[in-house]
Write a structure and sequence with these properties.
The protein is 63% helix and 0% strand. It is an all-alpha fold. The chain folds into 2 domains: 553 residues, Cytochrome C Oxidase, Chain A (Up-down Bundle), CATH 1.20.210; 48 residues. The longest helix has 36 residues.
Length: 635
């Protein structure tokens, strides 16, 4: 079997280094790394926003920030964590892993992939930078209309939010169509749908959720944009509009969005748990079907966010039942993860700790979520800190825990080096303790009546202790995150060299060098098993599970890349493999598109003629960049 050097430091070719190579890259792996670094930057931004808020609420009647500044902080914290952190961190793994897991050399549309990233970056900066001047969005991450119409929110704050979310939606939709096409059309020979790794499967479901859910929020945002900029009356109650229109449109998007956030983490954990239990994933077929069922039912539960608006007994009963029903496929996943570990040869490395942490924390969040399926219970808890506790256990204890597990697991494949295990353990325990210290007391302050979205409170209401505990927990989370970043960047430079497969993993991505070459596989692999590397190296682990009869060379294409400890990898040019040309044109197309859409904020600041001329100029630049992109050779 051909392998790369297990003890040689990873080497980058000169032609793939330098700023220009990153600005013009269309390599899905490099784009995944760009997503990772950018989302980690926004994690710092969102974490700082949360820390300031928790400092303000540490004691009664503090004045760390004003009420208006607090509104901007909690709006931007929610918006940042949902749209600029968790979704892009998942996208980092979509980009890096999906082609590797299905045995493809690239994604279906490499330039569209680059465009998606640059739109995300510029859109994220557009919606975030206004907070430096305290003119950031201030209407909540849910943006309830008519409170966000011009009559009640006259400044530029909401304009940045409305336009920024539309920009970010374009990025998400472009990526979704790309990955659906990639998974359907570019799987290696023998890579049937029911042989795909679980992360790819959950990613596949997520892309359909994106293309079905994001148009709904786009419609809601376009209505609001026209109300604010052009005087229409989609949300004007005096003109006969339904005050609940925004809520229905937003939550038809908003609840599938929860599964857009959590399913990729489920997929990552479903890769980590079998690996560190040295057992195949328990109930693979059921795990696939339960993921599909979660995606399907996710569109039928949105109005459980609206039990307090007076929909009536029939609607309340229907959405109560669907909310209970969706707990079944979610619970199936939790039990299958537990059964995967049961009787396994468990190794408690950092990825495994975070994976188990997800199971525990998401279970707490899931239980409190089922509580909200009962309208009488929900009426007591809605708009209190009990709900804040619930969704942070789901999104932080679930999605973020799963993403940390994935980062520790796939860091060696991305960089060729291992993260420090001691620092990883310290990060886990600080994170685990800080998470529970921050969010568990919110259940109690919420049940004692503390409302959400208040920037201060009077003493004597029984909330002081719980708020102090939550703030101390937040500070502990800050420390844990600092440990993670120190470990991440230290290991990136001087971590232990990992080799191809430091975890003895079962799937295709671990059969190639770390970090992978730009062409991924010199010869497209032949897949005859769900766990091709285990079948070949450790057949006792997969006895009776879709067994393989292929050789290692057939499975990995390794014979086409004669690698030895004393030689460097060969390039795509040396192997005669056509690869997409790097190009900076998607970057310029994204930049001019973001400037064109974002330029709408000029309508209230400049004369109409200047506003129109600016938009026409930016539109022309965008169309010109797009034309240059579409007419240039691909490879």
């Amino acid at each position: 079997m051909a392998t790369t050097a297990a003890h040689a430091a990873p080497v980058a070719s000169e032609e793939n280094t330098g700023l220009w190579s990153w600005l013009s890259t269309v390599d899905h792996k490099r784009i995944g790394i760009l997503y990772l670094y950018t989302a980690l930057f926004f994690l710092v931004v969102g974490g700082l926003e949360a820390t300031v808020m928790r400092t303000q609420l540490m004691k009664p009647n503090l004045t760390v920030v004003t009420a208006e500044q607090f509104n901007q902080l909690f709006t931007m914290h929610g918006t940042t964590m949902v749209f600029l952190v968790i979704m892009p961190l998942s996208a980092a793994f979509f980009n890096f892993l999906i082609p590797l897991q299905i045995g493809a050399r690239d994604v279906a549309f490499p330039r569209l992939n680059a465009f998606s990233y640059w739109v995300y970056l510029f859109g994220g900066l557009f919606i975030t930078l206004p907070i430096l001047g305290w003119i950031a969005p201030n209407g909540g991450w849910f943006g309830y209309a008519p409170l966000t119409t011009r009559a009640y929110a006259p400044g530029l704050n909401i304009d940045f939010w409305v336009l920024g979310l539309q920009i970010l939606g374009i990025s998400s939709l472009a990526a979704a169509f790309n990955f659906i096409t990639t998974i359907i059309n570019m799987r290696a020979p023998g890579m049937t749908l029911m042989r795909m790794p679980m992360f790819t499967w959950m990613s596949f479901v997520v892309q359909f959720l994106v293309i079905l859910a994001f148009p709904v929020i786009t419609i809601a945002l376009v209505f609001l944009q026209f109300d604010r900029f052009f005087g229409t009356q989609f949300y004007e109650i005096a003109a006969g509009a339904d005050p609940l229109l925004w809520q229905h449109l937003f939550w038809v998007f908003g609840h599938p969005e929860v599964y857009i956030l959590i399913l990729p983490a489920f997929g990552l954990v479903s890769e980590v748990l079998p690996n560190f239990s040295k057992k195949p994933l328990f109930g693979y077929n059921v795990m696939v079907y339960s993921g599909i069922m979660i995606g399907f039912l996710g569109f039928g539960v949105w109005a459980h966010h609206m039990f307090a608006v007076g929909m009536g007994a029939v609607a309340d009963t229907l959405f109560s039942l669907t909310t209970m029903l969706i707990a079944i496929p979610t619970g199936v996943k939790i039990f299958n993860w537990i059964f995967t570990m049961w009787g396994g040869q468990i190794r408690f490395a950092s990825p495994m700790k975070f994976a188990i942490g997800l199971i525990a924390m998401f279970t707490i969040g899931g239980i409190s979520g089922v509580m909200h399926s009962s309208p009488p219970s929900d009426l007591q808890q809605t708009d209190t800190y009990f709900v804040v506790a619930h969704f942070h256990y789901v999104l932080f204890g679930g999605a973020i825990m799963g993403i940390f597990s994935g980062i520790y697991f796939y860091f060696p494949k991305m960089t060729g080096r291992l993260m420090d295990e001691g620092l990883g353990t310290l990060h886990f325990w600080l994170n685990f303790i800080g998470l529970n210290l921050t969010f568990f007391p919110m259940h109690f302050s919420g049940m004692l009546g503390m409302p959400r979205r208040i920037y201060t409170y009077d003493a004597g209401q029984g909330w002081e202790l719980f708020n102090m505990m939550s703030t101390m927990g937040t500070y502990l989370l800050v420390v844990s995150t600092l440990v993670f970043f120190y470990n991440f960047f230290k290991s990136r430079v001087s971590g232990q060299v990992a080799g191809n497969d430091p975890w003895e993993a079962p799937t295709l991505e671990w059969s190639i060098p770390s970090p992978p070459p730009d062409y991924n596989f010199a010869q497209i692999p032949v897949v005859t098993s769900r766990y091709p590397l285990w079948d070949l190296k450790h057949p006792e682990k997969t006895a009776g599970v879709d067994h393989s009869s292929a050789s290692i060379e057939e499975v990995t294409g390794a014979h086409a890349v004669p690698m030895h400890e004393e030689t460097e990898r060969r390039t795509a040019k040396e192997l005669g493999l056509p690869m997409p040309f790097p190009t900076i044109k998607p970057l310029f197309t994204a930049l001019f598109m973001v400037l064109m859409i974002g330029g709408m904020v000029l309508k209230t600041l400049t004369p109409l003629s200047v506003f129109v001329a600016t938009l026409i100029t930016l539109a022309a630049l965008m169309v010109g960049s797009l034309y240059a992109w579409l007419t240039s050779p691909l490879e």
